[in-house]
Write a structure and sequence with these properties.
The complex is a heterodimer of chains A (about 170) and B (about 800).
Chain A: E1 8-15, E2 18-25, H1 30-37, E3 56-59, E4 62-65, E5 78-80, H2 82-87, H3 92-101, H4 110-122, H5 129-135, H6 147-165
Parallel strand pairs in A: 1-5
Antiparallel strand pairs in A: 1-2, 3-4, 3-5
Helix pairs in contact in A: 3-6
Chain B: H1 24-28, E1 44-50, E2 56-62, H2 64-67, E3 72-77, H3 78-82, E4 110-111, E5 117-123, H4 126-133, E6 137-142, E7 168-176, H5 179-185, E8 188-196, E9 199-200, E10 208-214, E11 219-224, H6 229-240, E12 247-250, H7 266-278, E13 282-285, H8 288-294, E14 297-298, E15 301-309, E16 315-325, H9 338-346, E17 355-363, H10 378-396, H11 400-407, E18 416-417, E19 423-424, H12 429-440, H13 442-454, E20 458-470, E21 488-494, E22 500-504, H14 513-525, E23 532-536, H15 553-580, E24 587-590, E25 593-596, E26 602-605, H16 606-615, E27 629-634, E28 642-654, E29 661-671, H17 678-697, E30 728-732, H18 750-767, H19 781-787
Parallel strand pairs in B: 1-13, 11-12, 16-17, 22-23, 29-30
Antiparallel strand pairs in B: 1-5, 2-4, 2-6, 3-5, 7-17, 8-15, 9-14, 10-11, 10-13, 15-16, 18-19, 20-28, 21-22, 21-27, 24-25, 25-26, 28-29
The chains are: A alpha+beta (about 170), B alpha+beta (about 800).
C-alpha cells in the first residue's frame, strides 16, 4: 500500500467529549466505527445510503449521516451521539417530551430523530409545526405517523422559548 | 370481585388511563438492545449471494474467489445446507387446495425470484462476508419468468413448478344468496376495477438474527427480531432436528415489525443451520437491498367488482373477483393464501345485505414471496367495498354518509352473521359514524369544499367504514395444522420486596405491549405500575404463547395477565387474612398495601407480607397455601375472531395541473372494545393510518417484465415522511367483548385498514366534477393526470 492509497488511516477525534485515537479501515463508515469499535450502539444503521436518518449523529455542530461519512474523515472532529447527549443532559427535555407524548414506538429511529430535532431547536426561535415537519423530513419513522414527534418537538420549542423570556 | 371499569375513581384504576411506557426511556437514551447491538465471543457474520435473475437453473458454482477473501472461513451452497436442514411446505389443511413446493434455506437446483439466497459466506467481519458474497460466481441458466398475475393461468404461460401441474396456488369461491338474480333486478349496478400495489413493510431495523449453537449443552439460542418467538422455536427445532426443549428464542428490542417479522425466512433458517454446523455464533443482518428483495411483500391484487343497489340506496348484492400473485412459494408457516382469503371474508363487512359472491385466485409468479403484512387483506377489502358504495351513491345522487347509514348493521342488531359468514359479537357502526360526523363537522367541510371549488380548487371528502379482524382463535392457523398458538399465558409473581414480575408470551415491537401489561397487572394485583416489571420475548422463561400479531396482544395477552394478576391478588390476600386474623374477603390491595376493603385503612405493606412468606414461613399456619406465583392462560372460545369496527375520513386537495394530492386532515373513530391505554391506542391508530396513507399515495414495488426488481432502496420506494403527513383526529366508541373480563379487542391495524379507501374516495370526490376517477393505488400524480386525460400515450 502506498502512502497515497493507504487501507488503514490514523484518526484522532473526540467522541462525546472523550478523546479517541484509532487506526480505521479506509472504507469504514462512521456509523460502523461508532457501533463496532466504540460500542456506541445508540445510533442505528438502517438504509445505509443516507435516506432514512436512523444513523444521524452530530459532527462539529451539525447533523451528519453516519452512513455517508467515513471514519477516516473524522480526524480532528468533535462527534456527539445520543449517548453523550444523554450523559451531559443536553437533550433531557426533548427526551422527556418524547416519552411523555409517546413520540416513539419501536425506538429505532429515535436517537437519529432526537439529534435532528435538537439541531432545529438549537437554532433558536419557535419553529412552526410545518417547519418542524420539514426539518424532520430526512428522518423516517415507520411507527408513529410523525404527529406525536411533531407534538413533542413543538412542546419543547415552546418551553425553551418560555424560559428564554423569563 | 370484578373490576368496575366504568368507575374511574375505583382503587388502582390503571386500566383505561394513559400510563407511561416503562421501556420508552431506555430507547430515547439509545440504550435499546436490538439484535445487531449484541456481540458474542467468537461470533462470525454471514452474508448471502442471491439470485440476480427471476428464474434460472443453477449451474456450476465457483467459490474460489470468494474463499480467497481475507477473513472468510466457510462457504455453503444449497446442497450443503440441505444435508442438515429439512425443507418446508407452506400449506394449511383448512385452506382447501392450497399447494406449494418444498422450500430450502438456500436454493438447491433452481432460483425462483430476484433475491433468493443461493450461497452463504461466513467471515470474521460483515464487510468481509459481503465482499466475498459479491465474488461468488454462479452459472445461471435462464428459465422463463412468470410475472403477470392475470395471465399466470393461461395455457401458454410456463408453469413455475411443473410437479404442481399449474401456477394456481389457491382458489376460493364463496357464494351466499342469489347474486345474479339481485343484479338483474337492481335499480343500479355499478362495476369497477381496482388495483392495489405491491408493498413491503420497510421496518427501520432490518431483519436480524444471531444464532448460537452450544454443542456441549445441545442447545441453540437464537437472538431474533421476531414477533413470534415460540413459533420460531418450533421451526428451528423441527427443521434442524433439535428437541424443541433445546431451542431458546430470545427477542429483545425489535425495530418495527408490522407483520414483516412473523414469517420464516430462508436466510434466517440458513443462519441457524450454519451456527449448528460451525458450533459458533453466527449473525445475519439484512442490508436494505435485501430488505426490499426478501422481506415479504403484500397487497399485489387486481379486482373486478360490482355492487347492486335499489332506488333507495339499499345494497342488494356485491360481487368480487380478486386475483393476487404471491411469488414462487407460499410463505411458511402462515401461508400466502390468507390475504386473498381475507378479501373474501371482509368485503361488504359493515353492511347488512343478502347476496354476496367473492372469489380469490392466488397464483405463483417469479417475484418476492408475499405474505401477511399489517391489516392483512383489510385495505384491499375496504377499498373495494367503500369504493363501490361511493360510486353507487354518486350514481344515485345520494350523500355518501347517507348511503352508509342506510346499509350499516344497526347497533342493536348483534350478534349477526355476515353474508361472508363472519360472526360479529357487537359493533357500533352508527355510533362511530355519528361521532365521526360530529368531529369533522361534515356540513361545514362540505361548505368549505364548495367554496374552494368556486376558487378553482378541487377538494374532496372521503369516508371509509370498516371492520377489523382481531383476537384470532385457532380457526386462523391452528385448525390448519400450524403450530402457532392462539392461546397466550402470563405468570405473575410477588417478590420479597412486594414488587411484582409478570412474564408474558406476547411480545413488544414498539406497540406498548409492556406498558399495557404493566397497567393491567398493576390494577389486577393492586400495586403501582412502577412496581411491576414485565418480561417478554424469551421462550425459556415466559409461558408458551403466540406472540404479537393480528392485533392479539392486548385482547389475548392482556386477559391472561389480568387473570394471573387477580389470582395472585387472591393468594396474597389469603396469606394476609391469616397474618391479620381477618377474613380475606374483607381485605383489598391498594398501591402496594393490604387495606381494609370498606374503610381503606392500611393494614400491612406487601413487603412485610413478602418478608414473612419468604423468610419467616415458620410463623404461618402449617397448611396455609403461600404460592405467590400464579399463571393463567387465555384463549377465545365463543367467536373465531373478535371483530372491531371504525370509520375514517380524509379531506384533501388535488392539484389538477400537477396531479399532486395534499392531505388536509384525517379523522378516525374506532371501536376496539375496552381501551386500556388511550394514548397508546391513539398512537397505534395514527401510525397505522400513515402506513395506509403510504399505500394510498406513494408505496409501490416495481418489477420489469422479466421479474427484475426496479426499486430496491429507500430513495426509490417512497414511504410517508413528516412533511407530507397531516395531523389526525382520533375518537373512540367502546363496545367491550364479552369473551373476556378485560373486554379488549385489537387496535393495531384499524388505521391501515381504512386509510387508503378514505383517500381514494376523497380524491374521487374532488375529481367527480371533472368526470375523472382513480381506482389503482398508489394514486400518483401520473395516475391522477391520466384519469384527468392530461397524459395520454
Amino acid at each position: 500500500m502506498t502512502e497515497m492509497f493507504r487501507d488503514k488511516v490514523d484518526v484522532a477525534l473526540t467522541v462525546n467529549g472523550e478523546p479517541v485515537e484509532a487506526r480505521v479501515p479506509a472504507g469504514q463508515h462512521m456509523i460502523d466505527f461508532l457501533r463496532l469499535d466504540l460500542g456506541l450502539t445508540g445510533a442505528h444503521a438502517s438504509c445505509e445510503h443516507g435516506v432514512c436518518g436512523a444513523c444521524t449523529i452530530r459532527v462539529d455542530g451539525v447533523s451528519v449521516r453516519g452512513c455517508l461519512m467515513l471514519a477516516a474523515q473524522a480526524d480532528g472532529a468533535e462527534v456527539w451521539t445520543v449517548e453523550g447527549l444523554t450523559d451531559t443532559a443536553a437533550i433531557t427535555d426533548l427526551q422527556d417530551a418524547f416519552v411523555a407524548r409517546n413520540a416513539l414506538q419501536c425506538g429505532f429511529c429515535t436517537p437519529g430523530m432526537l439529534v435532528a430535532a435538537e439541531e432545529l431547536l438549537s437554532a433558536g426561535g419557535t419553529p412552526s409545526r410545518a417547519e418542524i415537519r420539514e426539518h424532520l423530513s430526512g428522518n423516517y419513522c415507520r411507527c408513529t405517523g410523525y404527529e406525536a414527534i411533531v407534538d413533542a418537538v413543538e412542546s419543547v420549542a415552546k418551553a425553551r422559548a418560555g424560559k428564554g423570556d423569563a | 370481585m370484578t373490576i368496575q371499569f366504568n368507575d374511574p375513581d375505583r382503587p388502582n384504576s390503571y386500566i383505561g388511563k394513559t400510563v407511561p411506557r416503562p421501556n420508552a426511556t431506555k430507547l430515547v437514551q439509545g440504550r435499546g438492545r436490538y439484535v445487531d447491538d449484541i456481540a458474542l465471543p467468537r461470533m462470525l457474520h454471514v452474508a448471502f449471494a442471491r439470485s440476480p435473475v427471476a428464474h434460472a437453473k443453477i449451474g456450476e458454482i465457483d467459490l474460489d474467489e470468494a474463499k480467497a477473501v481475507k477473513g472468510v472461513l466457510r462457504v455453503f451452497t444449497g446442497k450443503d445446507l440441505a444435508e442438515v436442514c429439512t425443507p418446508w411446505v407452506a400449506v394449511l389443511a383448512h385452506l382447501k387446495g392450497l399447494k406449494s413446493p418444498p422450500e430450502h434455506p438456500l436454493a438447491v437446483d433452481r432460483a425462483c425470484w430476484v433475491g433468493e439466497p443461493v450461497v452463504a459466506v461466513v467471515a470474521t467481519t460483515r464487510a468481509a462476508a459481503e465482499e466475498a458474497a459479491s465474488l461468488v460466481m454462479v452459472d445461471y441458466e435462464d428459465l422463463p419468468a412468470v410475472t403477470d398475475t392475470m395471465t399466470a393461468l393461461d395455457k401458454d404461460t410456463p408453469v413455475i413448478h411443473p410437479e404442481l401441474g399449474d401456477n394456481l396456488a389457491f382458489r376460493r369461491l364463496h357464494e351466499e344468496g342469489d347474486v345474479e338474480g339481485a343484479m338483474a333486478q337492481a335499480h343500479k349496478v355499478v362495476s369497477a376495477r381496482f388495483r392495489t400495489a405491491r408493498h413491503t413493510g420497510v421496518t427501520l431495523e432490518p431483519r436480524s438474527i444471531l444464532v448460537d449453537w452450544n454443542p456441549a449443552e445441545g442447545q441453540m439460542t437464537a437472538y431474533h427480531a421476531t414477533q413470534a418467538p415460540h413459533m420460531m422455536q418450533t421451526v428451528f427445532a423441527k427443521h434442524l432436528d433439535i428437541p424443541e426443549s433445546r431451542v431458546r428464542v430470545i427477542c429483545g428490542d425489535v425495530g418495527g415489525s408490522y407483520g414483516i417479522k412473523v414469517h420464516v425466512y430462508p436466510d434466517e433458517v440458513a443462519t441457524a443451520a450454519i451456527a449448528k454446523m460451525m458450533g459458533r455464533p453466527i449473525k445475519f443482518i439484512a442490508d436494505r437491498l435485501e430488505s426490499y428483495s426478501t422481506d415479504i411483500h403484500a397487497r399485489d391484487h387486481e379486482i373486478e367488482a360490482k355492487i347492486a343497489v335499489d332506488k333507495d340506496g339499499k345494497i342488494l348484492a356485491i360481487d368480487v373477483d380478486d386475483w393476487t400473485g404471491i411469488g414462487p412459494y407460499s410463505v411458511y408457516p402462515r401461508t400466502s393464501a390468507i390475504e386473498g382469503n381475507q378479501v373474501v371474508n371482509l368485503c361488504g363487512g359493515p353492511y347488512d345485505f343478502a347476496n354476496y359472491r367473492a372469489q380469490t385466485t392466488v397464483v405463483f409468479q417469479n417475484k418476492t414471496p408475499t405474505c401477511q403484512y399489517r391489516a392483512v387483506g383489510h385495505p384491499i377489502a375496504v377499498a373495494i367495498t367503500e369504493g363501490l358504495v361511493d360510486m353507487a351513491a354518486a350514481e344515485l345522487g345520494m350523500d355518501p354518509v347517507e348511503i352508509r347509514r342506510r346499509n350499516m348493521y344497526a347497533d342493536d342488531a348483534y350478534p349477526v352473521t355476515s353474508p361472508a359468514k363472519m360472526r360479529f359479537e357487537g359493533l357500533s357502526h352508527h355510533a362511530s359514524m355519528d361521532k365521526l360526523i360530529g368531529m369533522m363537522d361534515y356540513d361545514a367541510l362540505r361548505a368549505d369544499q364548495e367554496d374552494a371549488r368556486k376558487r378553482g380548487k378541487y377538494r374532496g371528502i372521503g369516508i371509509a367504514s370498516f371492520i377489523e379482524l382481531t383476537n384470532p382463535s385457532p380457526f386462523m392457523y391452528g385448525i390448519g395444522g400450524a403450530r402457532i398458538s392462539a392461546q397466550d399465558g402470563c405468570t405473575v409473581r410477588m417478590d420479597p420486596d412486594g414488587s411484582v414480575v409478570a412474564l408474558s408470551g406476547v411480545t413488544e415491537q414498539g406497540q406498548g405491549t409492556e406498558a399495557m401489561l404493566s397497567q393491567i397487572v398493576a390494577e389486577g394485583v393492586g400495586v403501582n405500575p412502577s412496581q411491576v416489571r414485565i418480561v417478554t420475548g424469551d421462550t425459556q422463561v415466559t409461558p408458551y404463547g403466540g406472540g404479537t400479531w393480528a392485533s392479539r396482544g392486548a385482547g389475548i395477552g392482556g386477559e391472561a395477565a389480568l387473570q394471573a394478576a387477580r389470582a395472585l391478588r387472591d393468594s396474597i390476600l389469603e396469606v394476609a387474612g391469616a397474618m391479620l386474623q381477618a377474613d380475606a374477603s374483607t381485605l383489598d390491595i391498594r398501591s402496594g398495601q393490604v387495606v381494609d376493603g370498606d374503610s381503606g385503612e392500611e393494614r400491612m405493606p406487601l413487603e412485610e407480607l413478602g418478608r414473612i412468606v419468604y423468610f419467616r414461613g415458620d410463623t404461618l399456619p402449617k397448611d396455609l397455601p403461600r404460592e405467590l406465583v400464579q399463571t393463567r392462560h387465555f384463549i377465545t372460545m365463543e367467536y373465531p375472531f373478535a371483530f372491531t369496527n371504525g370509520v375514517q375520513a380524509s379531506y384533501l386537495e388535488v392539484d389538477t395541473d400537477t396531479g399532486v394530492v395534499t392531505l388536509l386532515n384525517h379523522w378516525c373513530v374506532e371501536d376496539c372494545g375496552r381501551v386500556i391505554n388511550p394514548q397508546l391506542v391513539d398512537e397505534q391508530i395514527r401510525g397505522g393510518i400513515v402506513q395506509g396513507l403510504g399505500g394510498a399515495l406513494y408505496e409501490e414495488i416495481h418489477y420489469d417484465a422479466y421479474g427484475q426488481l426496479l426499486n430496491g432502496s429507500m430513495a426509490d420506494y417512497l414511504v410517508p415522511m413528516a412533511a407530507e403527513m397531516p395531523d389526525m383526529q382520533i375518537g373512540h366508541v367502546e363496545t367491550p367483548t364479552g369473551e373476556s373480563e378485560l373486554g379488549a379487542k385489537g387496535a393495531g391495524e384499524a388505521g391501515t385498514a381504512g386509510a387508503p379507501a378514505a383517500v381514494m374516495n376523497a380524491i374521487n370526490d374532488a375529481l367527480r366534477p371533472l368526470g375523472a376517477q382513480v381506482t389503482e393505488m398508489p394514486f400518483t400524480p401520473e395516475r391522477i393526470l391520466r384519469a384527468l386525460g392530461k397524459i395520454e400515450d
